[in-house]
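Chain X:
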Amino acid sequence: MKHLPLPTEPSEPDGLNPLAEAPTQERFRARHEMLHVTTRESQQMIDITAAVETACTSAHIKAGTMTVASRHTTAAIVVQENEPLLLADLDRFLRRLAPKTDHYCHNDMASRTDVPPDERPNGHSHLRALLLPTSVQLVIADGRLDLGRWQRVFLIELDGPRHRQISLQALGIGATTPAGIHLVAGSEAGAGAAS
């Protein structure tokens, strides 16, 4: 019968024991939170980068991804430069592609079924939204969002003013913690390393 070393006995020439628990370990982590934004205009570009960065820091993830997703069919999430003239160009571009004054079948409330009493004639908003993403996935590196020099995260309101919800979910390898300690708070979860 072959003797296997106990975890406290060195088994390698350099004194390392592959069976011994390391003093620290990395864990897969997931954290979700909801960002609430109240818009003021019918079409508006709102820089939400600072809020996304705060959520990233709170997640305690050193390497992974952050998904930023709109929970609405007339609001989009994009990564773009926060330069006022560029944002004005984007606003004009979207308004030209789907003018509010055009005829939209979606706006014919008498012909639609199950129309909520507070429904707006917003066919133009839905068509504009078709041209934009509802979510973006960002890289987390060294515990921070890995954005380029000019990159910012925007909520684009296409049917405001409204109260909007943005889903933020961070996934990845958690910051190294002492073995056996699980950092779990709010809607956050940590999972042990695979055996």
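Chain Y:
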Amino acid sequence: MATSFSFASNGKAIVEARRAESRIKEEHSVSVAGHLRIDLDEYDARIRTFVPGYEEMIGRAAAALRFVAVSSPTVVDLGIGTGALSAACLQSRPDARIVGVDSDPGMLVGARARLAEAGHVELIESDFLAAALPKCDAFVACISLHHIRTEEEKRALYLRCFEALVPSGIFVTADCFPGERARVAEYQREAWLAHLMQSYTAKEAEQHLESWAGEDVYFPLADEIAWLQAAGFGAEVLWRRDAFAVIAGFKDQEAARTQPA
């Protein structure tokens, strides 16, 4: 059984942590319901105060689509939120067709607004754990798969994604993947606090980590890689900053071994 981790200040490094995107979902739920709109500028600003290296992280995740050799690839965004990752994917691959899945109708309002100028976007209101996964060239996710609470559910999703991908397909996830050792996780927690304290007081930063603890589940990077490999993927770490990382799973394992650095 894998161990997940917490960055709550009780010092038990690694058992369930933060809620960045979901917290913003709650804060915007009234305005979305009442006015059918989301202030995307505010959302974008807030998420960057919560997640260290957010801009670079989604950029690296989107850039992974360069490994998809086909033209006009179908890209499925699991937990699309307001569409920030999908927008970055379209910058990386303007020829892509986006299929966004999210259970929150308010988030889909934001995604629809953000991606309004894109030509090929389909938005599906559904829990990605329950939704039928379409055949596609790539699955992408950014700070969304930490809502999966058990190892069994996550491994099952990885296997379903592997089976839905075309033979040359790729799976990309950007999220918090702590180190396995307590001392490493504590260092990563301090780094996260330092980032939060660029925008919040020390007390507020601690309160953010406390309020997020127990909401989301973060499994160690090594476990995530092992589960991708068990599903059949050739796994690669494309980017790493403290506890946050971008991981890619290549369905074609030979391609994974020969991709240039």
